Amino acid sequence: MANAASPQDDRRVAGSSLLLTQLLKRPLLNPVNERLGRVEDVIVRIADTGHPRVTGLKASIGGRHLFVPEQLIARMSPDGVRLHGQTLHLGSFERRAGEVLLDQDVLDRRLIDVGTGRLVHASNLVLTADQDGWRLTGVDISPGGLLPRVLRRATPKPADILDWSRIQPFVGHVPTAGVLMPIGPFRRLHPAQIADLVEQASHEEGEEIINAVEADPELTADVFEELDPEHQVEFIQSRSDADAAAVLARMAPDDAADLLNELDQPRRRPVLDLIPTPQGQKLRALLQYHPSTAGGMMSPDFISVLSQTPLSEVLDRVRSADNVPSQLLSSIFVTDLDNRLVGTVGLADIVRGAPDVLVDRLPGLVRGGVRVDTDLPEVALRMTDFNLPAVGVIDDADRLVGAISVDDLLEVVVPDEWRRREEASSGG
Fold this sequence. Notes:
- The model is unreliable at 1-8 and 421-428 (pLDDT under 50).
- The chain is α+β, with helices and mostly antiparallel strands.
- The protein is built from 16 helices and 21 strands.
- The strands form five sheets. Strands 2, 3, 4, 5, 6, 7 and 8 form a seven-stranded mixed beta sheet that branches. A four-stranded antiparallel beta sheet has the order 1-11-12-13.
- 38% of the residues are buried.
- Helix 3 (191-200) crosses helix 5 (217-226), helix 7 crosses helix 9 and helix 14 packs across helix 15 (406-413).
- The protein has three domains: 1-179, no CATH class; 184-288, Alpha Horseshoe (MgtE N-terminal fold), CATH 1.25.60; 296-413, Roll (CBS-domain), CATH 3.10.580.10.
- The longest helix is centred in the middle third of the chain and has 11 residues, at 203-213.
- The radius of gyration is 29 Å and the shape is elongated.
């Protein structure tokens, strides 16, 4: 961290840095270094991108809280804040829309590190001077938050400082902030990382994350698919029937059916009736099967081709299959004219084959599938024995009605504690 500011007007000395705790409760001085009061808080506008600019201070003078605009600050250092000669406005401090108080609203709270997709604890905040004033440039995530603030004035280790540009604070608790958590930072994360953040956060923090990503309906659905069942229900229950239906309509049908089954019985039919017809029909078909059977696990979205289809046409089908989940694109299901399942062939075998070869002539074709009432152990055994990344599901007439990917299987058979991804919270 740079040396303390010079004794001159140093708010424009680029590179000078201070910790927030070095300013809190420090003296507020007039131009001849007479004490006027003390610094209570530092104000920024979090909506600013990159490094938010300090717009002023909240100060205590004569028992009153006043606003000190950034333009009146001549010098900030661990010794206190010295002002220019202008007269202070003596009206009581009132938070303006969009303003965030760093001590009251950010320090000692959890923040989102969008660089790694984890929650971090703000043990301290770093302010750095540039040619235009002071900016919030970093956050100290060391365990120092357990110490009294008066002891948190030593320079933290560089490894414990995160650049503020990779940080997204929670703002839902900020009164009259007028700021909503933006979706932009979350676009840098995988939906599974966002789901981890929601699961590790408090309910209020999780709602704030969900509300932010709702600006992108597809991303919202992806995040709900990644949430564990407990959190799926927690956040879908608080939404209206129409909003719940909108989320379910964009989820993979098998995941949506599982979540719909978790809703309270009185809500299932109203929500299902609000889902658009194509998706609703798929859900109704899946809901007739027990969740612990192949029918309850399967997805109705897959690629099937007739047995006499040339490999060139099969590849065209793969390229145009926008509605098929990526985990089910690696297996192609071969049927006869009556939609009875002939077998499964891997995409790699199709790519390696000559374009004019018929798909049912490939040596890698695995005959048969599993029935809708097959239990999970037998499904797992079938996929393991034949090294299948996906298996076809058939009804009593051997007609192909769905497919199960290895990802679908793992979600069910792997214990929750094993599926827990890297801890999203580093403390606090």
